[in-house]
Design brief:
about 375 residues; alpha/beta; Aspartate Aminotransferase, domain 2; Aspartate Aminotransferase, domain 1; 2 domains; seven-stranded mixed beta sheet; three-stranded antiparallel beta sheet; 11 helices; about 15% strand; globular; binds ligand T4K
């Protein structure tokens, strides 16, 4: 028998928040100084603390992750074509297009849904200037192969690492890979500053450029050298980030417990596929994607049944970016068949710090029991 409707809705995520008093305490110096934005004291402190936590040599903060990615691409001075994947949030491709560049879509692999490095090289032309791979769901791309291909073809590599905050490969901060990596600190992320984002990079000489690009391209009191924008993180965001940073390890630990329970319940079930785990990675358990492939019920049916139980999973990432209305005339979803296929079968299940373990069990019960009902094999 299926269990009854849950009391409160369970959404795909729920923002982690520090104790209110902690944040209120952080607001006092803002009131005293009346310095609200434009690279204030918290902004600078947050930047330094993040460099250390994320284990990266250089980092710049931004008002949100999308702006960080747009400006990272601008800073790299690219032209022509940029190879990326269509299995991502809209932001990835929009950032390329809004820089006047042409996206070229590479398919993803079936194990962790990151860029298929076996196909990557075949898409490189004389017009290619960069690769923008996505650490989708916090699954790290094959950064070593990508680095090797990038170097051989003299291409810049800018990671969309929106989902990869705090992750490490062999004990090294993931932001150490590529020419730059963008991290999102949106409210829905493992770690957040309400809205916010950062670019990590290795080339120290780029520090002034990133700073200037997010501040209208102003380079001195009377000089404006670049067509920049307003991408500055304000003090309220930085204060939230500083508070959350104190609690993020515990938060990741709790997520890990929940993710392990999902895995325990769903792994090995016929027709249900979970992402391949990489033992070299310190994970952040950003998302819980599950692919229904040959299960008794399709993804959309599971989505609907969960919704009937007041549980709101999400179809991240459906549709694929190359089938969006705004790109439909320029690209064909059939050119990336794996991405097209996975996007129709994937469901991102609720996963957040305060989700009770019993809720994970209830979600798994609903999925497994409705599967039995559909096949009549109870
Ligand atoms: N690249 C990638 C690969 C990304 O996934 C993203 C963002 C970016 C780039 C750009 O980074 P940012 O510029 O956003 O920093 C959400 C997020 O808004 C977005 O940040 C995220 N990816 C994307 C995957 O998910 P929506 O439209 O699905 O969000 P929404 O409003 O439906 O919220 C989802 C759930 O989160 C709600 O059901 C409840 C919960 N929630 C939401 C908000 C706004 C909270 O608990 N608290 C909140 O304040 O896009």
């Amino acid at each position: 028998m299926m269990r009854g409707k849950t009391e409160d809705p369970i959404l795909v995520t729920r923002s982690s928040l520090p104790p209110l008093e902690e944040y209120v305490e952080m607001l006092k110096p803002i009131w005293e100084s009346a310095w609200l934005t434009n690279m204030g004291a918290y902004h600078e402190e947050f930047k330094e603390k993040l460099k250390e936590y994320m284990d990266v040599p250089c980092l710049e903060l931004f008002v949100n992750g999308h702006m960080a990615l747009e400006l990272a691409l601008q800073a790299m001075n690219l032209e022509g074509e940029v190879i990326t994947t269509p299995f991502s949030f809209s932001s990835t491709t929009h950032a390329i297009v809004r820089n006047g560049l042409t996206p070229v879509f590479c398919d993803i692999n079936r194990e962790d849904y990151t860029i298929d490095v076996e196909l990557l090289e075949s898409l490189i032309t004389e017009r290619t200037s960069a690769i923008v791979p996505v650490h989708v769901y916090g699954n790290l791309c094959d950064v070593e192969r990508i680095q090797e291909i990038g170097e051989r073809h003299h291409l810049k590599v800018i990671y969309d690492a929106a989902h990869a905050f705090g992750e490490e490969l062999d004990g090294r901060g993931v932001g150490q890979w590529g020419n730059a990596s963008m991290f999102s600190f949106h409210a829905t992320k493992v770690f957040h500053s309400i809205e916010g984002g950062a670019v990590a990079f290795g080339d120290k000489s780029l520090e002034p450029l990133f700073y200037q690009l997010k501040n209208f391209g102003i380079t001195g009191y009377e000089t404006v050298e670049y067509v920049g924008t307003n991408g500055k993180m304000n003090e309220f965001q930085a204060a939230m980030g500083l508070c959350n940073l104190r609690h993020v390890d515990r938060s990741i630990e709790k997520r890990g417990i929940l993710a392990a329970r999902y895995r325990e319940r769903l792994e090995g079930v016929e027709g249900i596929r979970l992402c391949r785990e990489n033992p070299r990675v310190r994970k952040n358990y950003a998302y819980m994607p599950v692919v229904f492939d040959g299960y008794r019920l399709g993804r959309d049916e599971i989505f609907r049944i969960l919704k009937e139980h007041n549980i709101y999973a999400r179809k991240y990432f459906y549709p694929c970016i190359n089938s969006y209305q705004c790109y439909r005339d320029r690209f064909r979803a059939e050119d990336t068949p794996v991405a097209a296929d996975i996007s129709k079968k994937v469901l991102t299940l609720p996963l957040y710090e305060d989700l009770p373990l019993e809720a994970v069990d209830r979600i798994c019960d609903i999925i497994l029991e409705s599967g039995k009902g559909a096949g009549g094999t109870e």
